[in-house]
Amino acid sequence: MEKFAAKLTTILFEKYKNHWYLDNPSRGQAFRCIRINKHQMRDPLLEQACVESNVDFNKLGLPKEMTVWVDPFEVCCRYGEKSRPFTIAHFEGEENQDLPQQISHAVDRAALDYHSGTSSDEESFNREPKAIPTVSNPNSVYQFNDYCKPPIQTWSQYLHRKTYMTDGLPQAGSYYAQHRGYKVYRPTAAFTGPRVDRYHWINTKR
């Protein structure tokens, strides 16, 4: 539901951004209205948010008749056609006039996180080393490989690990171990000779 809330907020900002009047909050109120009744069983914006967040619309548990007005500094709701509306959320614009902008930035960050689909662990693992400095002396050669052998792929022992099934379904523990159990680190090169700095350059014409 957290993903649904983030998707819905992003959709509402995109649709209402040209119909948002801080100096006159009631202006454009009919446009900024989420509506469910016997003539419209599903509001298009709510349905779009459900589709994009993979949420079943029926599981929202919404009433058959509902009206929501999304206005600057206030959100109101009414159940049925003859009931009195009530306030869902109220913000004092005088106390924090930057609130709409802060919410917009928060939604943008949430949207980027969902689209990226990467965790901090993955980002740290995939980060490649920076470029090696270029050689300014044409008579120098890079001698690092003369003393170091290629590292052994220590993580290869996990490549053929089987996932056991129970009653036709994968065990939760094996699924968790596949994705979170083994944190892979890049092994350092094996030491086979004198200590050599990886960025050290040796002059062959000494």
UniProtKB/TrEMBL annotation:
PROSITE patterns: BTG_2 (PS01203)
Name of the protein this chain belongs to: BTG anti-proliferation factor 4
Family to which the UniProt record says this protein belongs: Belongs to the BTG family.
Pfam families: BTG
GO cellular component entries: cytoplasm; nucleus
Gene3D superfamilies per UniProt: Anti-proliferative protein, N-terminal domain (3.90.640.90)
Database matches in SUPFAM superfamilies: BTG domain-like
Gene name of the encoded protein: BTG4
Domain of life: Eukaryota
Residue span, Anti-proliferative protein domain: 62-81
